[in-house]
Amino acid sequence: LIRTLPIDCICHLIILWKIEIKVANLLSNYYFLLELLSKIMRTILVLFIISCTHSFGLNAECPDKFIDLEGRCYYFSKDTANRIEASRNCTAMHSFLLSIQTEREGVIVFNQAVKENVKKEPFGYWTSGTRVTSKRGFEFVWSSTWEPLTYTAWCPSEPNNWMNDEYCIHLTNLQSHNTKACWNDRGCMESTTHSRHPMHYICETEAYMAPIECDE
Q1: Global pTM?
Q2: Residue 171, domain extent
Q3: Which among 133, 149, 152, 150 has a CA at the least distance from the CA of 141?
Q4: InterPro entries from the entry (predicted)?
Q5: Spatial separation of the C-alpha atoms in residues 216 and 214, rounded to whole Å
Q6: Distance (Å, rounded) from C-alpha 114 to C-alpha 119?
Q7: Given this model, what pLDDT does residue 31 score?
Protein backbone atom coordinates (compact mmCIF):
# COMPACT_ATOMS: atom_id res chain seq x y z
CA LEU A 1 0.00 0.00 0.00
CA ILE A 2 2.81 2.41 0.91
CA ARG A 3 4.35 2.02 -2.56
CA THR A 4 1.14 3.27 -4.19
CA LEU A 5 1.08 6.53 -2.22
CA PRO A 6 2.27 9.85 -3.68
CA ILE A 7 5.81 10.87 -2.72
CA ASP A 8 4.64 13.82 -0.61
CA CYS A 9 2.40 11.50 1.46
CA ILE A 10 5.31 9.14 2.07
CA CYS A 11 7.43 12.11 3.17
CA HIS A 12 4.82 13.10 5.75
CA LEU A 13 4.58 9.51 6.97
CA ILE A 14 8.33 9.53 7.57
CA ILE A 15 8.00 12.79 9.54
CA LEU A 16 5.20 11.31 11.68
CA TRP A 17 7.30 8.21 12.30
CA LYS A 18 10.27 10.34 13.45
CA ILE A 19 8.00 12.33 15.78
CA GLU A 20 6.65 9.10 17.28
CA ILE A 21 10.19 7.85 17.96
CA LYS A 22 11.20 11.12 19.66
CA VAL A 23 8.09 11.22 21.86
CA ALA A 24 8.44 7.51 22.68
CA ASN A 25 12.00 8.12 23.89
CA LEU A 26 10.74 10.89 26.18
CA LEU A 27 8.03 8.60 27.59
CA SER A 28 10.18 5.48 27.84
CA ASN A 29 9.76 5.39 31.63
CA TYR A 30 5.97 5.77 31.51
CA TYR A 31 4.55 2.50 30.21
CA PHE A 32 0.87 3.56 30.31
CA LEU A 33 1.52 6.78 28.39
CA LEU A 34 3.69 4.89 25.92
CA GLU A 35 0.86 2.45 25.18
CA LEU A 36 -1.58 5.34 24.77
CA LEU A 37 0.82 7.12 22.42
CA SER A 38 1.18 3.96 20.32
CA LYS A 39 -2.60 3.64 19.90
CA ILE A 40 -2.99 7.31 19.02
CA MET A 41 -0.20 7.21 16.45
CA ARG A 42 -1.58 4.06 14.82
CA THR A 43 -4.96 5.76 14.46
CA ILE A 44 -3.37 8.90 13.00
CA LEU A 45 -1.30 6.86 10.53
CA VAL A 46 -4.32 4.85 9.34
CA LEU A 47 -6.40 8.00 8.84
CA PHE A 48 -3.50 9.69 7.07
CA ILE A 49 -2.98 6.77 4.67
CA ILE A 50 -6.72 6.64 3.89
CA SER A 51 -6.71 10.39 3.22
CA CYS A 52 -3.68 10.10 0.92
CA THR A 53 -5.19 7.15 -0.92
CA HIS A 54 -8.40 9.06 -1.65
CA SER A 55 -6.54 12.19 -2.72
CA PHE A 56 -4.07 10.31 -4.92
CA GLY A 57 -4.06 11.73 -8.42
CA LEU A 58 -5.52 15.14 -7.54
CA ASN A 59 -2.14 16.72 -8.29
CA ALA A 60 -1.21 14.28 -11.02
CA GLU A 61 0.11 15.62 -14.30
CA CYS A 62 0.29 14.31 -17.85
CA PRO A 63 3.68 14.06 -19.58
CA ASP A 64 4.68 16.80 -22.00
CA LYS A 65 2.61 16.82 -25.24
CA PHE A 66 -0.01 14.51 -23.69
CA ILE A 67 -3.59 15.69 -23.09
CA ASP A 68 -5.58 14.92 -19.94
CA LEU A 69 -8.95 13.44 -20.88
CA GLU A 70 -10.95 12.47 -17.80
CA GLY A 71 -7.94 11.35 -15.80
CA ARG A 72 -5.94 9.56 -18.50
CA CYS A 73 -3.23 10.99 -20.72
CA TYR A 74 -3.34 10.79 -24.51
CA TYR A 75 -0.94 11.84 -27.24
CA PHE A 76 -2.32 12.53 -30.73
CA SER A 77 0.51 12.33 -33.22
CA LYS A 78 1.07 14.82 -36.01
CA ASP A 79 3.45 12.57 -37.93
CA THR A 80 2.54 9.71 -40.24
CA ALA A 81 3.50 6.15 -39.35
CA ASN A 82 2.66 2.54 -39.99
CA ARG A 83 1.46 0.47 -37.07
CA ILE A 84 4.92 -0.90 -36.17
CA GLU A 85 6.47 2.57 -36.15
CA ALA A 86 3.54 3.92 -34.15
CA SER A 87 4.03 1.31 -31.44
CA ARG A 88 7.75 2.06 -31.22
CA ASN A 89 7.12 5.79 -31.02
CA CYS A 90 4.69 5.33 -28.13
CA THR A 91 7.17 3.11 -26.31
CA ALA A 92 9.85 5.78 -26.75
CA MET A 93 7.53 8.19 -24.92
CA HIS A 94 7.02 5.69 -22.08
CA SER A 95 3.44 5.01 -23.17
CA PHE A 96 1.38 2.49 -25.14
CA LEU A 97 -0.73 2.55 -28.26
CA LEU A 98 -4.36 3.30 -27.52
CA SER A 99 -6.66 0.57 -26.24
CA ILE A 100 -10.32 1.61 -25.99
CA GLN A 101 -11.98 -0.08 -23.03
CA THR A 102 -15.40 1.58 -22.93
CA GLU A 103 -17.83 3.45 -25.15
CA ARG A 104 -17.21 6.58 -23.07
CA GLU A 105 -13.48 6.42 -23.69
CA GLY A 106 -14.12 5.90 -27.39
CA VAL A 107 -16.29 9.02 -27.51
CA ILE A 108 -13.90 11.34 -25.68
CA VAL A 109 -10.90 10.12 -27.70
CA PHE A 110 -12.73 10.59 -30.99
CA ASN A 111 -13.95 14.06 -30.01
CA GLN A 112 -10.38 15.07 -29.25
CA ALA A 113 -9.21 13.56 -32.55
CA VAL A 114 -11.73 15.80 -34.33
CA LYS A 115 -10.28 18.84 -32.54
CA GLU A 116 -6.77 17.79 -33.56
CA ASN A 117 -7.91 17.47 -37.19
CA VAL A 118 -7.36 21.12 -38.13
CA LYS A 119 -7.46 20.32 -41.86
CA LYS A 120 -11.00 18.95 -41.49
CA GLU A 121 -10.29 15.92 -43.65
CA PRO A 122 -10.74 12.15 -43.27
CA PHE A 123 -8.20 10.76 -40.83
CA GLY A 124 -6.96 7.52 -39.36
CA TYR A 125 -5.37 6.89 -35.97
CA TRP A 126 -3.68 3.62 -35.12
CA THR A 127 -4.77 1.82 -31.97
CA SER A 128 -3.22 -1.26 -30.37
CA GLY A 129 -6.03 -3.48 -31.67
CA THR A 130 -4.52 -6.59 -33.28
CA ARG A 131 -5.94 -9.71 -34.94
CA VAL A 132 -4.59 -12.94 -33.44
CA THR A 133 -5.36 -16.59 -34.05
CA SER A 134 -7.45 -18.42 -31.48
CA LYS A 135 -9.42 -21.64 -31.01
CA ARG A 136 -12.34 -19.93 -32.74
CA GLY A 137 -10.22 -19.02 -35.75
CA PHE A 138 -9.23 -15.46 -34.91
CA GLU A 139 -10.07 -12.65 -32.54
CA PHE A 140 -8.90 -9.11 -31.83
CA VAL A 141 -6.99 -8.12 -28.70
CA TRP A 142 -5.35 -4.94 -27.46
CA SER A 143 -1.65 -5.64 -27.95
CA SER A 144 -0.76 -3.10 -25.25
CA THR A 145 -2.40 -5.36 -22.64
CA TRP A 146 -3.16 -8.56 -24.61
CA GLU A 147 -6.72 -8.39 -23.34
CA PRO A 148 -9.67 -9.20 -25.65
CA LEU A 149 -11.90 -6.38 -26.84
CA THR A 150 -14.77 -5.78 -24.42
CA TYR A 151 -16.22 -2.93 -26.46
CA THR A 152 -16.25 -2.47 -30.24
CA ALA A 153 -17.33 0.22 -32.69
CA TRP A 154 -16.69 -1.34 -36.09
CA CYS A 155 -17.53 0.50 -39.28
CA PRO A 156 -20.27 -1.13 -41.40
CA SER A 157 -19.08 -4.41 -42.98
CA GLU A 158 -15.90 -4.35 -40.91
CA PRO A 159 -13.67 -6.07 -40.05
CA ASN A 160 -13.33 -7.66 -43.48
CA ASN A 161 -9.62 -8.58 -43.56
CA TRP A 162 -9.38 -7.35 -47.14
CA MET A 163 -6.80 -9.25 -49.20
CA ASN A 164 -6.27 -11.38 -46.08
CA ASP A 165 -3.78 -8.79 -44.85
CA GLU A 166 -5.61 -6.52 -42.38
CA TYR A 167 -4.48 -7.35 -38.87
CA CYS A 168 -4.51 -3.94 -37.15
CA ILE A 169 -7.29 -1.60 -36.01
CA HIS A 170 -7.42 2.11 -36.62
CA LEU A 171 -9.93 4.78 -35.64
CA THR A 172 -11.42 6.61 -38.62
CA ASN A 173 -13.93 9.29 -39.53
CA LEU A 174 -14.22 8.38 -43.22
CA GLN A 175 -17.38 9.93 -44.63
CA SER A 176 -18.00 6.87 -46.79
CA HIS A 177 -18.85 4.93 -43.65
CA ASN A 178 -21.72 7.35 -42.95
CA THR A 179 -20.98 7.54 -39.23
CA LYS A 180 -19.22 9.90 -36.84
CA ALA A 181 -16.49 7.51 -35.81
CA CYS A 182 -15.78 3.84 -36.24
CA TRP A 183 -13.06 1.21 -36.36
CA ASN A 184 -11.56 -0.35 -39.45
CA ASP A 185 -9.03 -3.13 -39.91
CA ARG A 186 -6.01 -2.20 -42.01
CA GLY A 187 -2.70 -3.66 -43.08
CA CYS A 188 -0.23 -3.06 -40.26
CA MET A 189 2.51 -1.81 -42.60
CA GLU A 190 0.29 0.84 -44.20
CA SER A 191 0.91 4.49 -43.34
CA THR A 192 -2.19 5.88 -45.06
CA THR A 193 -5.92 5.23 -44.92
CA HIS A 194 -7.80 3.62 -47.81
CA SER A 195 -8.47 7.13 -49.11
CA ARG A 196 -4.70 7.82 -48.98
CA HIS A 197 -4.89 10.25 -46.09
CA PRO A 198 -2.07 10.11 -43.51
CA MET A 199 -2.32 7.53 -40.76
CA HIS A 200 -1.50 8.94 -37.34
CA TYR A 201 -1.52 7.23 -33.95
CA ILE A 202 -2.68 7.75 -30.37
CA CYS A 203 -0.55 6.89 -27.34
CA GLU A 204 -1.88 6.68 -23.80
CA THR A 205 -0.42 6.52 -20.32
CA GLU A 206 -1.22 7.24 -16.68
CA ALA A 207 -0.89 10.64 -15.09
CA TYR A 208 2.07 10.87 -12.71
CA MET A 209 2.92 12.72 -9.53
CA ALA A 210 5.61 15.37 -9.93
CA PRO A 211 8.64 14.35 -7.80
CA ILE A 212 9.38 16.36 -4.66
CA GLU A 213 12.04 16.15 -1.98
CA CYS A 214 11.29 15.20 1.61
CA ASP A 215 12.04 17.95 4.12
CA GLU A 216 13.59 16.98 7.41
Answers
A1: 0.69
A2: 62-208
A3: 149
A4: C-type_lectin-like, C-type_lectin-like/link_sf, C-type_lectin/snaclec_domain, CTDL_fold
A5: 6
A6: 10
A7: 60
